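so the lab meeting is tmrw and i was supposed to have these ready like two days ago... anyway. pasting both below. for each one the top line is the aa sequence and the line under it is the structure tokens. i havent really looked at them closely yet so no promises
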Amino acid sequence: MILVNTDFIPGKEIVETLGIVRGSTIRAKHVGKDIVASLRQLVGGELKEYQEMIEDARKIAMGIMVRQAEALGADAVINIRFATSAVMQRAAEILVYGTAVKISSK
């Protein structure tokens, strides 16, 4: 599966647009890691606990989107975009979406 954030794939021709595909997940951190992150926030520095949470959430959301594209028979997903939102304190939603397409070599 080819995944790009552009509306084209170099050397390939888009022969069919199959539709929008998306993946979404909501994640929160374990209470212990949340306390560590809160303390780190007081003194400054990178909040590694939340960075890990967001990275894991991106991977999960991408996997969901790819499975949806595969179910449509797509060869690629173009115009991929990410969005995040807070759904409650210390929990975030990651949404990834794009256009599933069929391609051929030029």
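ok protien two:
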Amino acid sequence: MASKKVLGRGLGAFFPDYDDQSSEEAEKKRKEAEGTDNVYIDPQKRVNVVLRVPVQNIRPNPHQPRREFNKARLDELADSIKNHGLIQPITVRYIGEKRFELISGERRLRASKLAGLDELPAYVREVNDEEIISFALIENIQREDLNPIEIALGYQRLIDEVGYSQAEVAKKVGKDRSTIANMLRLLNLPAYLQAALRDQKISMGHARALINIDREEDQKKIFNDIIEKGYSVRQTEQVVRSIGEEKEKSSSKRKASKKEADEHAPMFKEISSRLRRTLSTKVNIKPKKNGGEIRIEFYSDEELERLLELFDSIS
């Protein structure tokens, strides 16, 4: 008999000695209904197919990028699974001894456990230890149900652990490179702002505006205003812009003062030299915005007396 592809079959189709009563019963019913014999598939070819895998044989993915799972949404999904079953298979890889490691679908796995399912449909992929990191991160990121900080951490892990460049990350997840760069910038925010973004106390628009604030005390003040006064993204951007304009004005004033001082430097240098010759001691002239100061140094009480006598003679 010609072999045919097995979809949604129990592990007995891959491992004839697998002790799985429910799978055997399901297979028996299927054969009775279809009038077909069991089709054995070599374990070496157990990839790119869907199996029904016992929940207890699936271990969590250590590279899972998600850190937060909303309990209410998990309960809703669990109720749906109770009523309709798990429609979309999870993705796993075979790790030997009839055990599997989750690649993606942890939310579905958790909800299925809550629903009391004993086994799940699982799509089996063949990946190595390095590839499973990128598969787990990319497949989760593409689902777009991660919060912004989880996504940014996922991108950073692809760079740090897999060795991708920002351009390669962008290509893998189907985003512009600028989008990847802007998401990575979120990781430069202080921890409390990252937590606020993760907990949806502020939006991505707020976060992008706050990134442009250099001083952390200014960031904290604006953040408090967002929370207490309900600043919109536009209001936040206006405040950030005003701080930037004030900073630019201060910088311009400092540059103008320095430029003026530089222009008068030769004159001040000449006057300092004349006073040093007249007073026979070190003299410095320090210009200010309006006027300036002359500093005359002395190194002993006798020298101070000499300078006082000199000033008295001038007057």
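from a quick look at the 2nd one: The first helix runs from residue 21 to 34. Confidence is low (pLDDT under 50) at residues 1-8, 16-23, 28-43. will dig more after coffe
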